[in-house]
Amino acid sequence: MKYHVTIISEFGWLSSKETNSRKDLLDLRTKARQNAAKCLPWSQYDKAFRHLVYYYELPGGEVRVEMRPRLVDDKTFYDFVDRCKPDFVGAIHRNELV
């Protein structure tokens, strides 16, 4: 399968490429997750932001890699999942104990 990959760098630059290799995607996903892990802990962020999204794959081979992960709230995250039905979402989730 051919994947159309959009990469957003740490500095906000956009680039794109095409690949047939799942290994290429795994390498990009791993690097994006490492960048997301550098944003932890979340204690300094607004408690409404509970999902740190760094990667997703949509049906049809569209892939987005965020080297600068995006914080989203529950509604935004679940609306995206319900509407776009991604094959995979790479995100770090924060659970709050009540």
Structure summarized in a few sentences:
This protein is α+β, with helices and mostly antiparallel strands and 98 residues long. It is built from two helices and five strands, in the order ββαββαβ.
Report on the structure:
The chain is α+β, with helices and mostly antiparallel strands. The protein has one domain (3-93). The chain is 28% helix and 41% strand. It has helices spanning 22-37, 74-84; strands at 3-8, 14-19, 49-58, 62-73, 88-93. A five-stranded mixed beta sheet has the order 2-1-4-3-5. The model has no long low-confidence stretch (mean pLDDT 92).
Secondary structure blueprint with pairings:
Layout: E1 3-8, E2 14-19, H1 22-37, E3 49-58, E4 62-73, H2 74-84, E5 88-93
Parallel strand pairs: 1-4
Antiparallel strand pairs: 1-2, 3-4, 3-5
Q: How many DSSP-defined strands? A: 5
Instruction: List the helices and strands in order.
Output: EEHEEHE
Question: Helical stretch count?
Answer: 2
Residue-averaged pLDDT: 92
Radius of gyration: 14 Å
Give the proportion of residues in helices: 25-40%
| Biggest sheet statistics | 5 strands, mixed
Low-confidence stretches: none
Distance between the termini: 44 Å
What coarse outline follows from CA principal-axis ratios? globular
Strand-residue fraction?
A: 35-45%
Adjacency order of strands in the biggest sheet: 2-1-4-3-5
> What's the number of structural domains?
1
Structural category: alpha+beta
